[in-house]
Predict the 3D structure of the following.
Amino acid sequence: MSQFRFQDFTIWQNAIELTDELFDLADNLEADKKFRFAEQLRGAVMSITNNISEGAGSNSKKDFARFLSYSRKSCFETANILILMEKRGYMSFDILAGQLAELEILSKMITNFRKSLLNN
């Protein structure tokens, strides 16, 4: 067992891997002086893991489910930022497609975890 409960959740483990990947992308944006995009991307993707971990510390399943909803919404925010980045030529369509696929899978995992939490 991990030190914190959220570390054992597959959704958090997948989200932290995606966050790490997108931080690399944000670092590249910063190197190209695209500071606002880098900041927005980091904030949106960190919100995914932050809300999972914060929700895991909740005292009720309903409260945890609320944080999971925020986390899922952050997946959509991250996707929007990535789409705009591709439109602006800051990333290739192939990279965008891969990242969007990962976000879609993660979003579905969060939804399913939330449903199972509320149904138990």
About this structure: The chain has a mean pLDDT of 95. Residues 61-87 form the longest helix (27 residues). The chain is about 80% helix and 0% strand. Helices lie at 10-31, 35-56, 61-87, 93-119.
